[in-house]
Amino acid sequence: MKTHLIAAMLLLCAAAVPANEYRAGSLTIDHPYARPTAPSQPTGGGYMKIINKGADDRLVSASTPAAAAVQMHSMQMDGNVMRMREVAAIDIPAGKTVELKPGSLHLMLTGLKAPLAVAQSFPLKLKFEKAGEVTVDLKVDAPAAAEMHHTH
């Protein structure tokens, strides 16, 4: 009986943590995803929310076996032209949420080794200045599914 009670409590605790949420120190990485790519498309994007419940931190690098390199980018409007620029790091201020999303801060996966297909997932290692490293599963979501998650 005691063994069954412990097993039931462990199942409840596991159910309380979403499968697409990861932790590194005081940071929570929520819903990491990518969008599908065309067969000949050499680049893709990585997106997620990073919630900081501790001191200031910074995302300093990322890597994945699915691409030759991962760059951190910002996007800004310059008049009527959207400009994308590589950045050295992404600041994660204390007590704030930073959202990496299309048309804003994001991860650029360059030199994709294969097209990204809906429902596929692959590991993405994130390295933070203070929180250290964490590997997340980057799930390939259809654009509508990814956008619906972020409107909750």
Architecture overview:
The chain is built from 2 helices and 11 strands. The chain has 152 residues and is mostly beta strands. Strands 1, 2, 3, 4, 5, 6, 7, 8, 9, 10 and 11 form an 11-stranded mixed sheet that branches. It is globular and about 40 Å long.
Q: State the helicity in percent bands.
A: 10-25%
Q: Name the average pLDDT.
A: 86
Quaternary assembly: single chain
Distance between the termini: 40 Å
Low-confidence stretches: 2-17
What structural class is derived from the secondary structure elements? mainly beta
Strand content: over 45%
- Whole-angstrom Rg: 17 Å
Write down how many β-strands occur, each being a DSSP E stretch of 2 or more residues.
11
The topology string of helices and strands comes to: HEEEEEEEEEEEH
Shape: globular
SSE topology sketch:
Layout: H1 2-16, E1 21-24, E2 27-34, E3 43-52, E4 57-63, E5 67-78, E6 81-87, E7 90-92, E8 97-100, E9 106-112, E10 121-128, E11 132-140, H2 143-149
Parallel strand pairs: 2-11
Antiparallel strand pairs: 1-2, 2-3, 3-8, 3-9, 4-7, 4-10, 5-6, 5-9, 10-11
Short description:
The chain is built from two helices and eleven strands; from the N terminus they run αβββββββββββα.
Based on the model shown, name its key terms.
disordered N terminus; 152 residues; mainly beta; eleven-stranded mixed β-sheet
